[in-house]
Amino acid sequence: MPAVLLGAALGRMVSKRPYYLQRLFPSFWLPLAKKTRKWRILELIIFSAAFTAALLFLTDQVIFYLSEKQIPTIEPEEYPLTPEKIPYPLLFLMVNLFGFLEEWLFRGILLEEFSLALRSRVGGLISSSLLFGLFHLSNPGTYPALALPLILAGVVLGIAYLFRGFSCSVLTHCLYNSILVLVVRFS
Q: Could you tell me the end-to-end alpha-carbon distance of the chain, in angstroms, rounded to an integer?
């Protein structure tokens, strides 16, 4: 149900501002990428790595705290994105595709729309981060406590978006997801 409501709201937002939809297609971002200088790409990688490190640290600390208090966050048997259910190469591809789409949705559209409606970038950041955390609760096998680290993740990703742009938040999200898959793979 939350996905249906969010989809309907997003459909309305995208119809009002077709720019959001254009961002998904290579015809929009490929010319921009070709014009980007090498030092800007290096800067993007460095900032994305820093935001990823902050994201890993914060979410790890919150999940550690929740586990110390014996507050459950995920029921692994029910969670859909596990290596037992999806082969690693496909899982790796899926979490990165989801990362891109989530950034497009939560930062590229919702953060912008909330910022306009509230006339505040901070208000947009907080609102989109809350929705980001709560939306993940629709995944099977997740408990309400999981929203807390995901809300913090939304804040970090939103800061990456606000300070370094859409490509930085996408790269940060994809790096974070990739590291999680690799940790599970090699632990």
A: 35
